[in-house]
Amino acid sequence: MTDKVFLDDAYLRDCEARVLDVNDRGGIVLDRTNFYATSGGQPGDAGSLEIEGLGTLEIATTVYGDDRTQIVHVPAEGSTLPKPGATVLCKLDWTKRHRHMRMHTCLHLLCSILQYPVTGGSIGAETSRLDFDIEDASLADKEQISDELNRIIEGDHGVTDRWITDDELLAQADLVRTMAVKPPMGTGRVRLVEIGGGQIDLQPCGGTHVASTAEIGPVIVQKIEKKGRQNRRVRIAFAA
Ligand SMILES: [Zn+2]
Question: Which residues contact 161 (CB under 8 A, 6 or more apart)?
Answer without folding.
Answer: 191, 192, 193, 194, 205, 209
